[in-house]
Amino acid sequence: MYFTAETLAANSRLRGHWNELWANRDIFNAQHDMMVNAFRARMTHEMLAANAIGGFTREFWAEIDRQIIQMRDQEIGMEIVNDLMGVQTVLPIGKTAKLYNVSGDIADDVSISIDGQAPYSFDHAEFGSDGDPIPVFTAGYGVNWRHAAGLSTVGIDLALESQSAKMRKFHKKRVNFYLNGDSSIVVDGLPAQGMKNHRNTQKINLGSGAGGANIDLTTATPAQLLAFFGPTGPFGLTARRNKVTAYDKLWVSPELWANMAKPYLVDINTGTNAILSGTVLDAISKFIPAKSIQMTYALSGNEFLAYERRQDVISPLVGMAVGVVPLPRPLPQSNYNFQIMSAEGLQIKKDGEGLSGVVYGANLA
């Protein structure tokens, strides 16, 4: 969902988004020149100086775009979003929701005969449907028309500093959406849900309530961790029930990671003596159906998240990659305002058997 040389080369739809971004920038330059020419005879020397840029140059936009890429990894939790970029689905901006069919049942009569004429039915599969919204994220920042001084070196620095501050808030909102969704966004009855609360995410209640696993993974012993995450524990059973051989990524909270990173001491039956055998994670990871286990500060306490990194399981929906466009200046004393915008959502699917490759564990009510 970012414009880089690699993503532009790999995705033709994203190149279309890139062309639209530059069309907006070129439209601003043309509109700006028309505005200045219309009022030039009545503008003061100071107004002329502040409006002398003649539109933003490619070098200016290169600095703006470069900073977007530089900042994409600085927000807590962005590592989860970035990990899923390999299975993103790029869509036209006109799509406000991404629907998909869920195959139902069909007659199970399969005939075996010599002549091939034995009776069999010609019915068709019944389909249900599901889907997820693709909302638009917007934010803005500006540079005062006098401070800009034609967006000289000082003006460019001020624009970049303002963008940096606002981009942090923009990314924080995006990460929260991918994890928790937004209850205010509903399209055609389809709610915008995140990895933690999506209706198609398998959930494991770690608390002590009804059906809860009644375990605190941040203080559990190595044996308890193995019993939970292993093949016959709640985590392993959830994987098997959903026909998951191994989740590509298991994200855990810092507190859970600290418990897993403790030294693993093996009793050698010589009184109180024990030998160090790596960490707890080293000892149990081979029994956990997960290819990679990593810590994230986006989770906390008794919490974990895992998924198969497959487009038919989970996919970021990108209707517009993150970009910055200038807003029209109707008057010489109008400020230089910029809009940060993206259109993106998250799709988590269940198949026709109701199986899902995403699982979330926490103390659930």
Automatic annotation (TrEMBL):
InterPro entries: DUF6260. Pfam families: DUF6260. This is Gp9.
